[in-house]
Structures are given as structure tokens and as C-alpha cells.
Amino acid sequence: MRFFLPSLTLLFPGLAVAAAGPSPAEIVAQAPVSAWHDVSPERLLVMKMGDGGRVLIELAPEFAPVHVANVVRLARSHQWDRGAIIRVQDNYVVQWRVRDEAAPLPKGFVAHPEAEYERPLAGLDYMALPYPDPYAAQSGIASGWLVGREGEEIWPAHCYGVVGVGREMPPDTGDGRELYVVNGEAPRQLDRNLAVVGRVLEGMEHLGALPRGTGPLGFYADPRQNVMIESVTLAADLPASLRPVMQVMRTDSPSFHDYLAARAARHDPFFVRPAKGVALCNVPVPARERK
């Protein structure tokens, strides 16, 4: 949809309009090669949907190394192949599982991981956001991931596109055979209550537009409604010619700092009054596929 707007000063004489500036999308499009880094194929999952759609997920071993290792083992033993999406709860999560939860577990799989819901800040680069966060004493970006912080402890935030591990009631932490992705308004109340194992870099449209489940909590009431997953493969295990190369913007780059400032105070012509602030989950770290 296009909007045709007359001059704001003609409509409202005396209104002070902020000087125009580039939009966040323009800043991302103009970012130099130096502003990007490649995602290692050892931490990139390629999910192929039954309808041919592709979803690319960057894993987060910095935050949940045992759960991430379990997910990788499941991918390498092909237990995700012919798995299914079993839950689509509107404005909350999409959840999927392996093909057969009773199948033997791959070698090295940890059946009952310890909770990996938060970690020490030490060892990660960190940049604080200067805006209040209702879910954390402070929020910011740690080594490229959106996080909450309290003292020296940090945790990944449940923002749109974040992938976590489904579990039963505590002390269960889930083992990785059921995963979910946030598909709406950030449910930050889940922070520090589940293990976050990654984020979708590309293909959320294939998950976010699925039919909503009509059973409790958005589960599909009839198993015939389940959405098939053709396969989930670690990018490193694909032939080089078929291996996608994803890039994520460096959060220590001038381009990202410009992008962050533009997200907090839009000065492109459509906006009348800059917000002068931004919520953590409204600063998604840009990603793109390198062709």
C-alpha cells in the first residue's frame, strides 16, 4: 500500500518537522561489506517444509550449549525428517517435533539437561540499550543477540523469530525434540523460563502464516492438520553448492549504530514525531543471504 501525503507544513502551519534521514531499511541496504559477518555453517539449520518453503535458523550455543548440541545430534541423525508442526497459537508460538519421540536417541544425546536459561555476561561483548525494559533491570545486545540483564547475568529475550525448547513442568527443561518459535508480540514472560537455542534468520513467513490450531493452546485438534517438515539439516552437512551462506550485521559496526538510532527515532519523511525510544525486540539484528 502506498501513501500519498501532502506537505505536513501545509496541513499544520508552524509544526516543526524533524529533518529527514534514512530509514532503517535504507541503512541496512547501504551497509558496506565490512558491516556483515558470515554465520558458520556449523551453527545454521536448514529446515525444508513439506510445501517447499525454507527456514534458516541460527543456533545459539553461547546460551544453551547442551540443548543446542542435542538439536544438532537430532538433525544429523535425521530425526527431524518427516517431523511435524503440531501447534500454531496465534500471536504466541509455532511448535514442532521430531518424527518419532519414541525412537532411540542418538549417541551423546543428553536426555535430561540442566536448565540453560541464563548465563554470566563474562566472555561476551555487550552494548546496553539506554531505554527502560519492563522485563529486565537492563536490556542490550550481547555478541549480536538481544538479551536482558540483571547484574552480571544475561539471558536471550523471547523476541519475534526466537527459537526455544518445549518442555513439561519443572524441573524438566526439555531435551530439544520439541522446539517452538515466537510468532507474534514478544512473550518476554518466558525469559529465563525456557532454553533458547536460536533465531530464525530467513523464512518466518512460512511459519507465521500457518493455519491456527483450534485445540487448547493452539495445538492442532486433529493430527491430520499437522504440517509436515520434510527435513532439518545442519548447513555444514550439505554439499557446498547447496549450502546457504547467511550473514548477520555486526552489532559493533557504524551501520548497526545508525540502524539502532533510526529504529529509536525515525526521521524518514513518513514520520511526524520520532518515538525517541525503542523496545529491545523492536531492534531485530539484520540478516541477509550472501549470494
Automatic annotation (TrEMBL):
Q: Which residues form the signal peptide?
A: 1-18
Q: What keywords appear on the UniProt entry?
A: Isomerase, Rotamase, Signal
UniProt domain PPIase cyclophilin-type: residue ranges: 53-234
* Xref: InterPro entries: Cyclophilin-like_dom_sf (IPR029000), Cyclophilin-type_PPIase_dom (IPR002130), E_coli_cyclophilin_A-like (IPR044665)
Source organism superkingdom = Bacteria
Name of the top EC class for this enzyme: isomerase
Q: Which Pfam families match?
A: Pro_isomerase
MF GO annotations = isomerase activity
What Enzyme Commission number does this protein have?
A: 5.2.1.8
Protein name in UniProt: peptidylprolyl isomerase
Q: What is the lineage of its organism?
A: Bacteria, Pseudomonadati, Pseudomonadota, Alphaproteobacteria, Acetobacterales
